[in-house]
């Protein structure tokens, strides 16, 4: 078994320090504060020195995004590990945990899930669009258990609008790969365009609700947003033939 060299250990420690500093700036000041100049100032080094470790600011932000996604997935995995082996219970626990995390980690949520194209973190896209990353995996693994063990109401493949088929086919391939690897016993043939369409709709409603709440963008004052969220999950459960969220 090989051991890291002294230079390798020093480099890893420095990269860890850089990302830890970037995370601190993110949490305290927001995504716009994560600049190479600000990180260098915090570490007492020159900004050009950071290029030995990251090719660009986008490269650093992408690594920071991956760190945040991994931490979110770890938190959710610990949470559902305490629950019974029930896909429905775990899936909706993940939904609730995601909302709770977003409301208590608004700067990280903004970086990973809400950066506009061309803005901070624009290299990342949606965290669920990368279904092979930790958050996508834990979300889809729970969804896979629901598909494998419950008779849910699925839209037929023929009901998918023609204009969406090409986009959904690309997502379908990634979805199949992750669900097969997660070994939830979902028959590959069951993951058709109808299932893929359902997954996208489910995520859009979950993400849309959480985003509105995080940024305070409800069209009316909402004194009980938690009740609205629980109602949305209950509606989703009923629509797909599950009766408790």
From TrEMBL:
- Taken from the record, one Pfam family name reads TetR_N
Give the GO molecular function terms.
DNA-binding transcription factor activity; transcription cis-regulatory region binding
InterPro entries, per database record: Homeodomain-like_sf, HTH-type_TetR-like_transc_reg, HTH_TetR, MT1864/Rv1816-like_C, Tet_transcr_reg_TetR-rel_C_sf
- Tell me if DNA-binding is a UniProt keyword of this record: yes
The organism sits in which domain of life? Bacteria
Q: Does the keyword Transcription apply?
A: yes
Q: Which residues form the HTH tetR-type domain?
A: 12-72
**DNA-binding region at which residues?**
35-54
Q: Which residues form a coiled coil?
A: none
Q: Which UniProt keywords apply?
A: DNA-binding, Transcription, Transcription regulation
State the protein's name. TetR family transcriptional regulator
Q: Which organism is it from?
A: Amycolatopsis vastitatis
